[in-house]
Amino acid sequence: KKTDEELIEEINRLRKEKNAVILAHYYQDPKIQDLADFVGDSLDLSRKAAATDADVIVFCGVRFMAEVAKILSPDKKVVLPDMDAGCSLEDSCPPEDFAEFRKKYPDHLCLTYINCSAAVKALSDIIVTSSNAEYIINQIPKDQPLILAPDQHLGGYLAKKTGRDMVLWPGSCIVHERFSEQELIKLKAKHPDAPVAAHPECPEHILRHADHVGSTSSILKYVLDTDAQEFIIATEPHIIHQMEKMAPEKTFIGAPGADGQCNCNDCPFMALNTLEKLVACMENLSPEIEVDEETRQKALAPLNRMLEMSP
Ligand code: 13P
Ligand code: SF4
């Protein structure tokens, strides 16, 4: 079995040899975050993928993110270390059911969270992420009825924040649903000076205790910019790696689950990507993301609308 150092050496060799760029999400293993050319949230990563001049995009994240890279950069080879790296939000929204659902609301503009399949994007009007959704909604006339899919918690949060009525799809993220309100209240009592930063994929009973709600990069920015010694972080705990790197003098406590344990609700899909699989995928340029051209064209339009309407 090779050591991590040997694997990283191989990755560095392959990165040059294949003219590859390695993009990683904040929920990836710290070793992968550290070797990536760029680490970011869903919006940052899609912009990087659209702008790269590398021949190969190695996506260390989940499948829908790699698919977005392929839709925006169809001439690049896009590879993902493990094709099974899915997402519970994507799973909650099968395209056939979504097409039926849309038919019930012919006058509604459909805003779809980027955490979905290319086929669902192809059925949408504008794609949004946690970092641009509010900004995009505020550009849409107030009398325009809206659908927000597939994350009901992000949808509920946005409806409240923007004062808009929205038809929601009942999907959710298994990671952000695992936090316990009761345990969070206990943890806050033990750390009364620690602000709570939460991702909008959390249910309302968690968000109501948050001092800041935002995407992964906005949570990161918040903890760097806020004058506090300790923070409680209600999102996937691997992002704490970046926080500890950027603000080593501060303490970051992951929000607890029902058993009171902190930092233990890893995203099981993100965790499928390992250094070993990363080496193999760069060596073989496989598994490769493919999106049929008709779906790609249809999904590209709402993604481009997102990029045009983003801050
Ligand atoms: P962001 O990084 O865009 O905040 O998304 C979080 C997430 O759940 C990705 O799956
Ligand atoms: Fe999907 Fe949740 Fe994992 Fe993000 S954290 S990839 S939303 S399952």
Automatic annotation (TrEMBL):
The keyword Iron applies. Binds 1 [4Fe-4S] cluster per subunit. GO terms for molecular function: 4 iron, 4 sulfur cluster binding; metal ion binding; quinolinate synthetase A activity. This is Quinolinate synthase. Signal peptide: none annotated. GO terms for cellular component: cytosol. InterPro entries: NadA, NadA_sf, Quinolinate_synth_type2. Belongs to the quinolinate synthase family. Type 2 subfamily. It comes from Emcibacter nanhaiensis. [4Fe-4S] cluster binds at residues 87, 173, 267. SUPFAM superfamilies: NadA-like. Its cofactor is [4Fe-4S] cluster. It is found in: Cytoplasm. Iminosuccinate binds at residues 25, 42, 113-115, 130, 199-201, 216. Its main location: cytoplasm. Keywords: 4Fe-4S, Cytoplasm, Iron, Iron-sulfur, Metal-binding, Pyridine nucleotide biosynthesis, Transferase. GO terms for biological process: 'de novo' NAD+ biosynthetic process from L-aspartate. It holds the Pfam family NadA. Pathway: Cofactor biosynthesis; NAD(+) biosynthesis; quinolinate from iminoaspartate: step 1/1. It catalyses: iminosuccinate + dihydroxyacetone phosphate = quinolinate + phosphate + 2 H2O + H(+). Catalyzes the condensation of iminoaspartate with dihydroxyacetone phosphate to form quinolinate.
